[in-house]
Design goal:
Elements: H1 14-19, H2 41-60, E1 68-72, H3 76-90, E2 96-100, H4 105-113, E3 117-121, E4 124-126, E5 129-131, H5 134-144, E6 148-154, H6 166-176, E7 179-183, H7 191-203, E8 208-212, H8 213-217, E9 224-228, H9 231-240, H10 248-289, H11 309-317
Parallel strand pairs: 2-3, 2-6, 6-7, 7-8
Antiparallel strand pairs: 1-9, 4-5, 8-9
Helix pairs in contact: 2-10, 3-4, 5-6, 6-7
Length: about 325
């Protein structure tokens, strides 16, 4: 039986109702994705509790200066886009995003979709690591001045790339009064990444940092977290999101966090560190067999890089 006289919250399939635990109204209201929906008190309560749990996770994993966060029903790229659109509302005459390069398509698409122009900063080699060219970032801040919308940096990345020099960039953003957006896609699971963001926020300027739900909390793709260092900025970002959204990603996260518990979550983080060390050891053994080596990228505690000199030699010989 379908309810009459209503335009929303009507679900034909009983299987779909059960799949969504009868929470069919979604989250937010037309002008604010974080607003409480009077017609859906259960969904609204779940969203607020989940945000509280997430805020505790962010603080506990190393970014204890975080003041507020919102869980968005979109993946990381769209959350970056939402953040950029918020910056554009605040500063409509600026459109240049200074971006230390990382080879990931989302980081290009998000600024382009926001109508921004990318200024790409190529990394420089430091030992065996690819690191941020801080000098070039400052050159671009000087050159473009008020046309710079923000600097978009990255923490979690593939070796030999290492997390951007967030503290140096944050100091520049504070000095030049430019916004700073951090792509922390899968960085919650890495204490080094979270510590970098926290230190940068205390020593310079970090406006927002964005992370994925699926990569950090073992849930299906489709949700993200935007966090910041004032309640006001997260409230403004929430109002930038157009319309309401699906509450499914929040529901998945809510169930998962309650299932894990804090002890279970940190047990998984500890396990990840052990597996990383084991993987590095096994790769080094394999490298010895084939006269290759694992690159030394000590500031990247998430991924590893392995030389393939043998393949190059064979290709050259053929």
């Amino acid at each position: 039986m379908l309810e009459r006289g209503r335009r929303e919250g009507r679900v034909y399939s009983e299987l779909v109702r059960q799949k969504n635990y009868y929470l069919s109204h979604g989250m937010g209201r037309s002008g604010d994705i974080a607003a409480n929906q009077p017609k859906a008190a259960g969904s609204a309560l779940m969203c607020r509790v989940t945000e509280g749990l997430v805020l505790d996770v962010l603080k506990s994993t190393g970014c204890n200066n975080t003041k507020s966060c919102v869980v968005l029903p979109v993946a990381t790229g769209m959350a970056l886009l939402t953040s950029l659109l918020y910056f554009r509302q605040c500063n409509p005459d600026a459109s240049i995003v200074i971006w230390p390069r990382i080879d990931q398509g989302t980081c290009v698409k998000s600024p382009q979709t926001a109508g921004c122009q990318l200024e790409v900063v190529e990394p420089v080699l430091e030992g065996e690591s690819l690191v941020t060219d801080v000098g070039r970032v400052e050159e671009l801040l000087n050159h473009h001045g008020d046309k710079v919308l923000c600097v978009m940096t990255t923490t979690s990345c593939f070796a030999p790339r290492t997390p951007d020099k967030l503290v140096h960039i944050a100091e520049l953003c504070k000095r030049y009064n430019r916004a700073h957006l951090v792509n922390n896609a899968y960085g919650i699971q890495c204490s080094r990444c979270m510590g970098l963001i926290n230190t940068a926020s205390l020593n310079g300027r970090v406006d927002l940092y964005v992370q994925s739900l699926d990569k950090n909390f073992l849930v299906p793709v489709g949700g993200s977290i935007v966090a910041g260092f004032t309640k006001e900025i997260i409230s403004s970002v929430s109002q930038t999101y157009p319309g309401r959204g699906s509450s499914s990603p929040v529901l998945d996260l809510f169930i998962t966090l309650l299932s894990m518990g804090k002890e279970g979550f940190f047990s998984l983080l500890s396990q990840r560190k052990k597996v990383y060390a084991q993987l590095k050891g096994k790769l080094q053994e394999l490298a010895t067999v084939y006269k290759e080596r694992v690159l030394e990228t000590p500031n990247n505690q998430i991924s590893l890089a392995f030389t393939l000199l043998l393949l190059i030699t064979r290709r050259t010989a053929s």
